[in-house]
Amino acid sequence: MTDKPVTLAVVTGAHGVTGEVRLKLFGDGPDSLKGYGAFMAAGRTLTLKSVRAGPNGAVARFAEISDRGAAEALRGTELTVPRSALPPLGEGEYYHVDLIDLPCASSTGEALGAVVAVENFGAGDIVEVQRASGKRFMVPMHAVTLGDGRAVIDAAFVE
Hints:
This protein is 9% helix and 48% strand. By secondary structure, the protein is mostly beta strands. Strands 3-4-5-2-1-6 form a six-stranded antiparallel beta sheet. It has a six-stranded mixed beta sheet with strand order 10-9-8-7-12-11. It is elongated, with a radius of gyration of 19 Å.
């Protein structure tokens, strides 16, 4: 496990005139952010003062942001924490960030490349694999077995 930054939210714009920001969340709701206290944001630290549910995500206030202009300047900024700050996982659970760059092989032993993305379009996680040739393909997470520092993909799903 590396301690690379994990994006928990992204600022989508200002909310009001006092420096609050709207957030798109990548976790389990606004309360999931409260335990972190501070986030890295484009090379600076933002200290969370408050967060609540908002339209299409959450509304947050940071100690360092006091007006609409400063809040609007954060649009598009990712809020990250180190991987080590995330809660421990249960058996069979994983964080998407842990799968990125994981080497992949088919269930028949063929080297396939590495995981480059994990997407979820509503029906479950989809793993995107890039071959050495640069060609990419996607497989449903249920066709992937994780272990021994690699992902093994059921050969029936390999292109």
